[in-house]
Amino acid sequence: MALSADIVYSVEASIFITLGIGLVVIAPLTSVKEMSAFRYVSLLSLGSLCYILVILIIELPAYARLNFSPERLNFATVNWGILQCFAIAFFAFQCHVEVVPIVDEMTDKSSSNTMIYRSVATNIFFFLSIGMCGYFSTYETTGQVVIERQGLPSGNTLMTLGKVMIIMVLCIAYPINTVPMKGIVTQKLYSKRHQLTKRQ
User: Fold this and answer.
1) Each residue's pLDDT tens digit, 135-155
2) What CA–CA distance (Å, rounded) separates 90 from 92?
3) Nearest-angstrom CA–CA distance, 82 and 175
4) Domain boundaries, the chain
């Protein structure tokens, strides 16, 4: 039995899916006490970003043929949309919040600087390369989320898989961000080295 578009895109369906993901995926992952518990799961996040970057690079020539026009090319535009760019930059910076508890959990503190530099460099690489591939595919019509762009006439099956992978990445990102938050709350209520119990 096929579901109608009205049901699939309804508010009720969105709430049902969100609650399902929250209860089945996000809630169990937020019970983790240390960042090291995510060391294997984070590989899925890295793999997803690599996959999306490869798809963007493969599809770039086809999108450029559809959207590129020397007459319309505008190298710089300043308008109120720049405020949204600041929001994206702040979000990118926030992605480094997890570095602090990871360094705190490291047994070999001497390699912490190397780990921080590699982490920041990896984030910069993916933000710049995915952003540039997205922009040079659709130019002035580029949206805030590059994977939501208009599909190619030949179909967009590969990017559909990428969208599913991004959903998984976000399901991992929320619990990862709860670990630093729990650490801060613990330090305020107890002490820096207090170990949270399951009940807490």
Assistant:
1) 888 887 777 777 777 777 777
2) 5
3) 30
4) 38-167
